[in-house]
Amino acid sequence: MNSEHAPRIGFVSLGCPKALVDSERILTQLRAEGYATVGDYANADLVVVNTCGFIDEAVEESLDAIGEALNENGKVIVTGCLGGRDDGQLVRARHPNVLAVTGPHAYAEVMHAVHQHLPPAHDPFVDLIPPPRENDVGVKLTPAHYAYLKISEGCNHRCSFCIIPQLRGDLVSRPIGDVMREAENLANAGVKELLVVSQDTSAYGLDLRYKLDFWGGRPVRTRFQELAAALGELGLWVRMHYVYPYPHVDDVIPLMAEGHILPYLDIPFQHANQRILKAMKRPASSENVLERLKSWRAMCPDIALRSTFIVGFPGETEDDFRELLDFLEEAQLDRVGCFKYSPVEGAPANDLPGAVPETLKQERWERFMEVQARISAAKLQSRVGQVMTVLVDEVDEEGAIARSPYDAPEIDGNVFLDGGTDLLPGDLVEVEIVEADEHDLWGEPA
Ligand code: SF4
After folding, report:
1. Three-state SS for 53?
2. Is residue 136's pLDDT more than 80?
3. Is the pLDDT of residue 131 over 60?
4. CB atoms within 10 A of CB 81
């Protein structure tokens, strides 16, 4: 096909890694059908906007992106989490001229809308190519050396501040054979690091009653522990996100200690006070978290723990907040994100009494960040002198920007390799850590 005549799509991808995976699937399908993607509105025949609908700020950002695409191009199809809110009414109320609105992971609906408004060109070459196999690597929006691996959709929990289950439904896990074939394809394509994502990675397979599936000619259960073990056989960096501190998570820690998967867990604790956790309806809220962390560290002293917290949740008192600060001091987490509670339209927590004033939320957020900055700085300082393998993400004229096994892309810190201009993204190099600040490390060839 002469690509000058291929129908051209502009694509705007907003939101979390799960939304990014949706964008990759839609782009892969578009490419397979002979659509070209272009990087500007003016040259696009139509624009698809994949939106985020999680917090109010994300809603506004998504609505603005739709407005911009409408102004600059005029033909816009909306998909993603915001599209799923109120059956698309929220989007249509602000932007009645959009061509179609679909919800999250609605690949077939998006393609249907695209076909309707911009039919694919008939092309004898492309039309003779069989449809892409489900597990082809497809279009990746991440750099070539790492990829998000989405293992399930939806969530069985009902955290009171969250509307994801309303948007994405209950947990639907992908059978483990499917996930592993995708992981293998990514490994064969040169990916060095897999980031396992879902809404609740520790619950993987629960909906399928841990169904037995097949991978590499042998039976494997669709379950978190088995998935971690199977991924560990691929010889890549495997990083686990969105895990809750359930007892069965203990079983994957030896895989970390033995170097099969990265010694890294991303566990969104959100708070430490039992009353607040109950009001949040958090999963595993009654587990003794500090004990669990202690036993994980005993099994794998090297483990890096990342978490996120919310301050200023309705009903949070000064004492509750201090309990959270005490928890931080005891837990000694490596990486921490903190959000001021922000009501999400449609979330049950909005009706809880005891709203915390904005100024107080801000004050608590600052106190929280101060404590954690001190902890993080000390943790990073203790890495000085260590020799470790790092993965190069970027190279510029000053040197290379890499990451350690203890840091995820985008959300954690970097390891700067000054002068490493001969390195390439995706290189794994052994370095000695020579310097640290509150957030990042500096290394030299070991
Ligand atoms: S675990 Fe809670 S916060 Fe996470 S997606 Fe499920 S309901 Fe939302």
Report:
1. coil
2. no
3. no
4. 28
Q: Say whether pLDDT at 123 is over 80.
A: no
pLDDT of residue 125: 41
CB atoms within 10 A of CB 388: 19
Contacts of 46 (CB under 8 A, 6+ apart): 7, 8, 9, 10, 73, 75, 76, 77, 99, 114, 117, 118
How remote is the CA of residue 264 from the centroid of ligand 1, in Å? Answer: 20
Pocket (CB within 6 angstroms of ligand 1) = 155, 157-159, 162, 164-165, 199-200, 283
Residue 348 exposed, middle or buried by CB count within 10 Å (0-12, 13-18, 19+): middle
- Please identify, by atom number, the ligand 1 atom nearest to the C-alpha of residue 163: 8
Residue 265's φ and ψ, nearest 5 degrees, are -135, 130
Question: Model pTM?
Answer: 0.77
User: Of ligand 1's atoms, which has the minimum distance to the CA of residue 282?
Assistant: 2
CA–CA separation, 328 and 315 (whole Å)? 20
Q: Report the atom number in ligand 1 closest to the C-alpha of 244.
A: 1
Q: Decide: helix, strand or coil at residue 213.
A: strand
Instruction: List pLDDT tens digits, range 407-421.
Output: 999 899 999 999 999
Strand partners, 194: 147, 238
Quickly state the pLDDT bin for 135 (edges 50, 70, 90): very low
The CA 418 to ligand 1 mean position distance, Å, reads 40
CA distance 100 to 318: 47
Residue 68 has pLDDT above 80, yes or no: yes
The string of pLDDT tens digits covering residues 2-53 is: 344 688 999 998 888 778 888 888 888 888 777 888 888 888 999 999 998 8
Residue 170 neighbours by CB distance under 10 Å: 11
Alpha carbons 391 and 86: distance in angstroms, whole number: 42
**Ligand 1 pocket check: which of 150, 156, 159, 204 to mutate, most ligand atoms within 8 Å of Cβ?**
159
Question: What pLDDT, on a 0 to 100 scale, did the predictor assign at position 301?
Answer: 96
Using the mean position of ligand 1's atoms as its centre, give its distance from the Cα of residue 218 in Å.
Answer: 33
Instruction: Report CA(328)–ligand 1 centroid distance (Å).
Output: 22
245 Cα–ligand 1 center, Å = 14
Pocket-testing residue among 81, 151, 157, ligand 1, by greatest number of atoms within 8 A of Cβ: 157
- Both tokens of residue 281? 């309806």
Does position 248 have pLDDT exceeding 80, yes or no?
yes
